[in-house]
Model the fold of this input.
Amino acid sequence: MSYKVTVEAAVPMSDGVKLATDIYVPDSEGPVPVLLVRGPYPKDQTFQSVGGFSPSISELMRNGYALAVQYCRGTFASEGTFVPHVADASDGADTVRWLVEQDWCDGNVGAFGGSYLGFVQFHTAATGVEGFKAIAPSITSADLYRAPWHSPGGALAFDCMLLWSYLMSSSEVQRKLAAGEGDPLDLLNLVKGLHGRAALTTITPVSEHPLVAKHLPAMLDVIVGHPDRDDTWTELSALDRVSSMTTPALHIGGWYDLFCGETLRAYTTMRADAGSEEARSGQRLIMGPWSHNPSGMLGHYPDRDFGMAANLEAAGLGSRQIAFFDRWLKGNEHALDGVAPVRIFTMGIDQWRDEQDWPLPGTDYVPYYLGGTGTANTAAGAGTLSADAPSIDAVDTYLYDPRRPVPSLGGTLMNHGGYEGPADQRPLHDRDDVLVFTTDVLTEPLEVTGPVQATLFVSSSAVDTDFTAKLVDVHPDGRAIILCDGIQRMRYRNSLSSPELMAPGEIYEITLDLMGTSNVFLPGHRILVEISSSNFPRYDRNSNTGGVISEEYESDMVPAVNQLHRGPEYPSRVVLPVVDR
Done:
């Protein structure tokens, strides 16, 4: 089907600011539903960011949908000043109101897109604006504190913050230069920074990045400057207003995406607490073995290949979204007949599976205890992992020095130094500040599908420090492939909004959120759990001082003697969601 384009329609917001919007309308009789894509990126990057995860323009036209592509306030041809997130809810609602008034719109508006393009969907849905009927957010978050900017355990998502700050500062400088303003040298230095991210991560204090302060100060003032989940963050959290959301949603995420945990949480929270029965029952979920990077959307990584079925094209995400929108924007009650509400890629066996809910009904949450008769430092240590309760009390001690952090290798890292996704963790296992606990070689397959948590009993010589945990699949050839991980900043052990320092030497019970996974540990494999106190630059380094970490220089940082307590009195463990098929 052919279509016509209205280039850069100036859509007025309630405060008079006009946002540049491209309108694509199919050549058809009568008005049609409209799908909205809003983002702060250039048009080519906007569709690159959703490419594979969402339908193409031609696919939408063929299926009778109009498309509106809009630059967020203060980006590119849109008027105003870009302050990340602040105007996204009101601007989204104003745009929906404008769309439903157009003679080519039948009054039904939906939205799709990934990352920032997903943030704005949740924000718009939380306004309850009339006419906004369904969303398909991918690789994104409805709680911006927990992802992408901080974490469920309170640590700053340092590398993501830094990368995005430099990217958006570069866009702002280009915008100024196009208007005859700005400094070309700033653009050159920002681009150099993006190509030398390893050097950027060494700059302290974190709050002092001059080019970001000059061109995107909100990133340092708001994102970095509010380490507690205070009122600033609750106002930016669409999920805190879930009862206002009446939109069915198709959530799409990746096991190695930095938004993995929040994709799963948005699905479960909206399914339980959305503002209408239609919205609650209309939640759907797709999880693949993908990362946040284009290279990870094929399912092929240097240390692990998930096969041809793992790539986005094979997953058929575009057609699945069309069917979802047919159901909720066109009223086709049979559009989703025979389509399971949950579809997940199970690693290990590398197969897609259709499920009825997440977490899977009938899941058995099995504690695997950290044990061993000796110390667990390094892979050569005596650390064991078993479903049998331990009989011997022990303490593992290591020195966490923030000047010598454990480097991030893959996982949900955004491709820093060539590492992303299911990376081999063996290069870390010779470090004396990494504790390694491993099962015996498995003789039967063990499926672990669902949310993963680690409960640890810990102490420290410091008043604040971090603890990290990873779940790893050890292959017969020795590869130790990360599945999921988490971090807990100790000042936030009881509350993300009300920090409490530690008493040095006191033992605390903490629970780390390792997000989730779906993996079959095959015969001949082993399950490994790794415990430490840093994962840098995925997360910022805890200075161990109890001060404002983002304002401290490296010279202010101090080492901490950290301890893991385990045994009958202190049953440190990882809880695995075991599925018996």
